[in-house]
């Protein structure tokens, strides 16, 4: 696979002067760090597949992860080339072999960033029931502690979601983005680009977990999804249906198991 990434040091945050109003009536101006909103077109086999709104970091991983979770690819062997322009506003991907794409237009479900999807893989539903995978309490706490002690952009701006990738007791990768979907795509993409066995991976997200986040994890073949936040009722049902281990409210001192794969 050939990767050509012409982006160089795209800024992920800037500053804006805000007026701070205190409860005692006093006011003060302060320069505040603000996360940047970035727009990128994803073009697959010369067809516009999606318009994405994201944080301009780890774009290669986000694109590869998005295509994995959506069923366009299963491994890096399915990708002939990936090109990202110098402004990070256009990504062009060519896939190996014949991949039939159909037109569709939809907004990213429950997404606050306004992402839009224009193409779908004609293969249809790629979601498969997962095989249960081993996990231990300490692995979950390690991921929760990683967020508590790291997340550089979030700690500065309070404006991003984070996603951590774990294998066993190791935290291998961390991604941040204004959208929780994008952050998860980046973590999945890292795993695929580094030829990790997705069935041995754990994803830890700081965002809430509705059905679309379950679909993304299942689509990538990751058997364990952990969240700092809460799931919806339908997400719990979907996790059970696809045999995904779902752990939420995962903090450094406790977590709650909503479904454990058997």
Jot down its keywords.
about 260 residues; alpha/beta; 7-stranded mixed β-sheet; 6-stranded mixed β-sheet
Structure description:
The strands form 3 sheets. Strands 1-6-7-4-5-9-8 form a 7-stranded mixed β-sheet, covered by helices on one side. The protein has a 6-stranded mixed β-sheet with strand order 11-10-12-13-14-15. Strands 2-3 form a two-stranded antiparallel ribbon. Helices cover 24% and strands 38% of the residues. α1 crosses α4 (180-193), α4 (180-193) packs parallel to α5 (211-220) and α5 packs parallel to α6 (233-241). It is globular. The chain has helices spanning 59-69, 137-149, 152-157, 180-193, 211-220, 233-241; strands spanning 2-5, 13-21, 27-35, 38-44, 47-54, 79-84, 90-95, 101-107, 116-121, 161-167, 170-177, 201-205, 224-227, 245-251, 254-259. It is α/β, with parallel strands linked by helices and 262 residues long. The model has no long low-confidence stretch (mean pLDDT 91).
Helix-strand makeup class: alpha/beta
Report the sheet with the most strands, covering strand number, pairing sense and barrel closure.
Answer: 7 strands, mixed
Mean pLDDT: 91
Helix content: 10-25%
N-to-C terminal Cα separation, in Å?
37 Å
Judging from the principal axes of the Cα atoms, what is the shape? globular
**Whole-number radius of gyration?**
19 Å
Oligomeric nature of the chains: single chain
**Which ranges are low-confidence, i.e. pLDDT below 50, for 5 or more consecutive residues?**
none
- Please provide the count of β strands: 15
């Amino acid at each position: 696979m050939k990767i050509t990434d012409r982006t160089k040091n795209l800024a992920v945050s800037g500053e804006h002067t805000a007026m701070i109003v205190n409860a005692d009536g006093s006011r003060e101006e302060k320069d505040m760090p603000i996360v940047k909103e970035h727009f990128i077109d994803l073009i697959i086999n010369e067809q516009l597949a999606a318009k994405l709104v994201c944080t301009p970091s780890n774009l290669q991983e986000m694109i590869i992860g998005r295509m994995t979770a959506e069923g366009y690819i299963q491994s890096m062997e399915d990708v002939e080339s990936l090109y990202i322009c110098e402004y990070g506003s256009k990504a062009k991907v060519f896939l190996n072999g014949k991949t039939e794409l159909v037109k569709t237009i939809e907004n990213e479900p429950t997404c606050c960033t306004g992402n839009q999807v224009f193409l779908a893989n004609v293969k249809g539903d790629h979601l498969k029931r997962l095989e249960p995978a081993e996990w231990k309490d300490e692995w979950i706490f390690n991921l929760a502690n990683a967020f508590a002690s790291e997340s550089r952009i979030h700690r500065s701006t309070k404006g991003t979601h984070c996603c951590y990738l774990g294998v066993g007791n190791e935290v291998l990768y961390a991604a941040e983005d204004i959208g929780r979907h994008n952050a998860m795509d980046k973590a999945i993409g890292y795993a695929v680009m580094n030829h990790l066995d997705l069935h041995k991976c754990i994803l830890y997200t700081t965002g809430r977990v509705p059905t679309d986040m379950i679909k993304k994890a299942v689509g990538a073949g990751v058997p364990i999804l952990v969240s700092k936040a809460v799931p919806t009722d339908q997400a719990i049902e979907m996790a059970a249906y696809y045999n995904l281990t779902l752990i939420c409210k995962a903090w450094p001192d406790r977590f709650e198991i909503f479904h454990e794969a058997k």
